[in-house]
Design a protein that fits this description.
Helix 2 (19-52) packs antiparallel against helix 4. The protein has helices at 7-17, 19-52, 54-58, 70-108. It is elongated. It is built from four helices and no strands.
Length: 109
């Protein structure tokens, strides 16, 4: 009996060949890479501001303010990262989990 004849391996092969599994893997990868690109792009732009126009970040937020532009901008970047993480978690807990459940049910049938 070869290792490919075991029920576990056959089940894994059946799942991998399922078009729904392939769609799930593709959708998860696209979402993860897209959100990663957005976060990296925003952080990169912030670092470019720090490197090339630091004076702009040091300017007051408005006339007479003791708060510089850099503080709310940095806070906004952090909040954006949290929101994008929440978006991924929501997608994983709704769309991806329901598709995973369907795939597993079909594999056990």
């Amino acid at each position: 009996m070869s290792t490919h004849d075991t029920p576990h391996v056959q089940s894994c092969d059946r799942i991998r060949s399922n078009p729904k599994f392939q769609r799930l893997a593709r959708q998860r990868a696209v979402l993860a890479w897209s959100l990663s690109a957005v976060v990296l792009g925003v952080y990169y732009l912030f670092i470019m501001l720090v490197a090339f126009v630091p004076g702009w970040l040091h300017m007051p937020l408005y006339e007479g303010s003791h708060l510089s532009r850099g503080i709310p901008l940095g806070a906004a970047i952090i909040v954006l990262s949290w929101l994008l993480t929440a978006w991924y978690v929501r997608s994983a807990n709704t769309r991806f989990d329901s598709l995973s459940t369907e795939i597993l049910a079909e594999a056990q049938a």
